[in-house]
Write a structure and sequence with these properties.
Blueprint: E1 25-28, E2 38-41, E3 46-52, E4 55-60, E5 63-64, E6 72-81, H1 89-94, E7 113-117, E8 123-125, E9 136-138, E10 142-143, H2 146-155, E11 161-165
Parallel strand pairs: 2-11, 5-9, 8-10
Antiparallel strand pairs: 1-4, 2-3, 3-4, 6-7, 6-11, 7-8
Length: 166
C-alpha cells in the first residue's frame, strides 16, 4: 500500500476507497514490445505496462470522451508527484468556471502523480474522481486511480514509449 497523502493534507473524511473498475493484474501480453513500453487501448479502457516475457501489468483507465479521443506514440517527458494543475486555454473557454490554477493535493484533478507525454497537453495521471475509471470522460488525458498511478509511476522512466490506440 502506498501513502497517498500529500504532505500536510489528510485523506478524505468520508474514507472513500480508491476502487478501480478493473483490478490491477499481471496478464499475458504477446506483441514484441520492449519492457517498459506503455500501451493504452482506448476501446478496452485499459493500460498495459510491458514487463517482457510476453507479460504486462494491466490497469483500468479513463480515456478521452467523444471529440477528445486521440491515437499515436509519445514518450514520457517528465514525471511529477502531486502536480499542480493549470487548465489549458481551450479548456477554460469550454469551462470558464474552472480555477486558473490549483495546487497539488487531494482535490486536484491530476491526482497523486502525473506523467507528461512529450510536448503535448496529454498526461497519464491520477484522479480525484476514481468512479470515472473505465469511462470515456476526460479531455484526452489517460486517468487512473491514485493507487494505480503511483504503482505505474514507480515503474516508468522518463523516455518510456507510450502507444495509444483504439
Amino acid at each position: 500500500m502506498f501513502d497517498l497523502s500529500p504532505r500536510g493534507q489528510q485523506q478524505p473524511a468520508d474514507g472513500r476507497p480508491q476502487a478501480t473498475a478493473v483490478a490491477r493484474e499481471i496478464v499475458s501480453y504477446p506483441g514484441g514490445y520492449s519492457p517498459g513500453t506503455i500501451i493504452v487501448s482506448t476501446n478496452e479502457r485499459r493500460l498495459y505496462y510491458v514487463l517482457g516475457n510476453n507479460q504486462a501489468i494491466r490497469y483500468g483507465v479513463g480515456v478521452g470522451r467523444p471529440g477528445f479521443e486521440w491515437t499515436g506514440t509519445r514518450v514520457v517527458s517528465s514525471k511529477r508527484e502531486w502536480p499542480d494543475w493549470t487548465p489549458p486555454a481551450q479548456m477554460l473557454r469550454r469551462r470558464p468556471d474552472l480555477p486558473r490554477h490549483m495546487q497539488g493535493g487531494l482535490a486536484n484533478p491530476l491526482g497523486a502523480r502525473a506523467m507528461y507525454l512529450g510536448g503535448s497537453l496529454y498526461r497519464i495521471h491520477g484522479s480525484n474522481e476514481p468512479e470515472t475509471i473505465g469511462q470515456a470522460v476526460s479531455s484526452g488525458c489517460i486517468r487512473m486511480t491514485n493507487e494505480d498511478v503511483v504503482d505505474l509511476y514507480e515503474r516508468v522512466h522518463v523516455g518510456a514509449r507510450v502507444i495509444v490506440n483504439r
